Amino acid sequence: MSLFEIENPGFDILEDPQDGPNPREVQLWFGPQHPGITGNMSVQVWLEGDTIKRGITHVGYLHRGFEKLMERRKYIQSFPIVCRMCVAEPDTTEYLLAASLEELSGLDAEVPEKAQWIRTLVMEMSRLQAQLMVFGGQAGTMGLGTAPNWTYTLRDFLLDSFEELTGGRVYHMYITYGGVRRDLPQGFALRLEKTLDAIEERLPYLDDLILDSEVFRTRARGVGVLPREWAEEIGITGPPLRAMGIARDTRRDFPYLKYPELDFKVCTATGSDIYARTLVRRMEIQESIGMIRQILQKMPHEGPYCAKLPNMLHWTIPAGYTYVRAEASRGEMGFVMVTDGSDKIRRVHLRGPSYTNAVTVLERMLPGTNIADLSALMVSLQTCPPEIER
Amino acid sequence: MSLRNVIAPFSAWARAFQKPFTVPQDSTHRPGAERYRGWHINDTEKCIGCGTCADICQNEAIDMVPVDEPTKGDSGLRPKVDYGRCCWCALCVDVCPSASLGMSSEYVWVDKDPDVFRYIPGVDKKDWDGDERGWRKDAGYDLIDHERVPMPMLEPEEERVKTWAEVVLGYNEEQARKEAARCVECGLCIAACPAHMHIPDYIAAIRDGDYERAVQQIYDNNPLPEMCGKVCTRRCEGVCAVGVNGDPLAIRWLKRFATEQFSDFDQVLSRDVPQIGAGRKVAVIGGGPGGLTAAFYLAVRGFQVTVFEALPQVGGATFFGIPKYRFPLPSLEKQVKLLTDRGVKILTNHKVEGDEFKRIQQEFDAVYIGTGLLKPSALRAPGEDLPGVMHAIDMLIDHHLGKKVDVGESVVVVGGGNVAIDAARISRRLGAEVTIAYRRRLVDMPADDEEIEDAQAEGVKLITQNIPLRVEQTPEGKLDFVWGPAEMVASEDGGRPRPKLIEGVENHLIVDRVIVAIGQKPDLTWLPDDVAEGVSNKWGYIDCDENGMTHVEGIFAGGDLVNDTADAISAIADGLKAVEGISRYLGVDAKVRRV
Hints:
- The structure holds 2 protein chains of 2 kinds.
- In chain A, about 45% of the residues lie in helices and about 10% in strands.
- Chain A is an alpha+beta fold.
- Chain A has a single domain, classed as Cytochrome-c3 Hydrogenase, chain B (Orthogonal Bundle).
- In chain B, helix 4 (about 175-180) packs across helix 10 (about 250-260) and helix 6 (about 200-205) runs antiparallel to helix 7 (about 210-220).
- The longest helix of chain B has 18 residues, at about 570-585.
- The termini of chain B are far apart.
- The mean pLDDT of chain B is about 90.
- Chains A and B meet through helix 3, helix 6, helix 7 and helix 8 of A and helix 1, helix 2 and helix 3 of B.
């Protein structure tokens, strides 16, 4: 008997368990502070050698409860909050908030034609800059450091345009109830056209660096293959879905804004692997550039850019329920909006692609994935943690 | 594996020999875009301190802090921005009613003291204060509604002179709630209102459709709301934040709407006020707005109040002065009924004269004097005693008492105040061609702008910058009103510009009647000499202390006799002051609620 047992009679001493932790397994926290992770989230993985045996995702590092915050603010005060639901692509959420409340209040009938065109323009610019970011970022996860530097430069050209148009580079806070907040500046179309030319001119160089690079091809092909059956089961949307060869796009299937008047194709690829998803993004960059050019040609140059608004401090909206959706660069985003006749939102819920992609799909994909491919997998699923922690 | 794919990435090396896209920050500071949302700037001269920016800020980054003494239409507060909270959304700029707030295009500011990132734009000087670039309010986008809901009026305009019916028809429920929703609840109106009515509160109640609450809020400091809802001089609207760059809230019409929702206010208002004045008697001499206000709130508190009124109807100038097409008699009677319901004893046709004042002084614990200004000011031009020259105030009283007033076929009204306009519009309805002759410019006219517009719409002609020289009788039995043109010269004492006669020019206007409406003076001859001497100053007006009490103990006063603004709402404010003063003087709690 040990001294401890003599001094503490009746205290159970636990025996070493027979089947304890697998000595071949290493538990590892990937994130929240890690350059390979997308945003502020982490993945807890159990490795055997280089191979992930299982893993779970952790979110909550930047929980600010956007949806709850919006229930306590007047409609106009909710407007600066929504863009923060997705840092990389703030305009989609801005549009969804505006569209859902316009529908419930009846303001949608008054949104001017020009505002709809400007909104379409901003949405497409926003998709373009987000795709550029991920396109280069995908190569970055494989150690190809030059590519993201280049695409971020191209994205910055677009951010200059955003700054000129909306007054902000990252958070634009531009699409709002009744239209948009400001008209296009003088000569904006011409400068945007030049920016598009500059981006388009450099895309072939990026192809050399990314899609045509043997390193990238080897590491992206056949890696992170999503089975086609998951598409419907989990509700996968966006490039991961189109990379399975399924041509689904909210812009075409559930038309909104001025998309029906634009000529564009839904880009698909086969293989459903990281390479296919990157390829879809690369094609969508080209499509977006084309669409922006069409918008600049077709949009009216005269007319108001915002409906006449009532006093927004006391704006009340009749009780109602709606779901509106839009195609973000990551996939379908939607707002479930409930109002109760007061001057505040009763309930709002964001349905974004990140929850599906970064939690459900990723956790299923983890077993068997090489630890070195985890970053590439996450970026190819285009995870955006703030959108999960809305 | 193809050779091309191995070699392709090396094409990136070509970039190494080209000019980089990136620029070093320390040598090249790129200014923000034309409409960049950078650090705030504020034009403190244009800012009225309404606080709407602080209201809309969802981060609560803006505090309104005092930087100056409040003045008319300016709270003296200015926004202080906390950049630990600000998210640069610029809603504050887009909502700013005075368009004073803006954002500069400056975005770099480094300091090791975190406290400096809270500053009052425009007051705490910054390098970017004069920045022409940056986010500013844009004409095509506004978060507040600057357009007033139009008031339905009696149409067509030319028919109005043929009837005594009310010209303003009043809002319906939808219009009123829409108009009430325009309010930004800054409260500048409360400070501007002499009676400090709870304007944003009752407008909020109307917006919510709770008209009982609206009337209760209104009655808290105004017992004649329907009168004010129709004819108030509305200083509130003059300072309305929404009106800085648009139409001010129709505060007067909203008050009118709320009061029109009830045929009788008795049920709406509580009778549950502590009866602190029980057993004490107060006399109110003169049943004008000030006197009635004092009488009502004293009676509500349990005082025994008697009102002595010389005319057959109480209401003072709101009864005999304001034409019935603006303020019909039933509206007045509805409000007087509530007074009598609450126990006010009203003695009409009872002019206090001779010894009676002394008797009243003995019988009552306190006396309130609010007899107003009834002695007309003289024209001081030859011929003013001719038959056919009359004073507006006498004409208005005669008209309202139902006596026949003969204005002939053409009239010139001398003066530019509300009384002049009333006399002109009544003469118009009596069938005369009317011309108003005013000494100063149109912008200087003390009459309400809407009144002037309505008068013109009804065919009243207006000549400005003229000085009456004399009135002569013509052989045909008409009057020749002779006037000379005037030029505006700066006043020696720094006041508003005054008219100066241009010598040598004479204009003639042949009319049947000349109506003089250039103001009235106090008349205290009905008071015993010693009392009159005790209460009045050298101009014949009465001076009061902060309790509304004159220099003679126990005698309180208010209204046009005391204040120089000479409107009903100021008289009501004086009445309110006297209610507190009399309560305090008689040793009861003056802070007890009023309704």
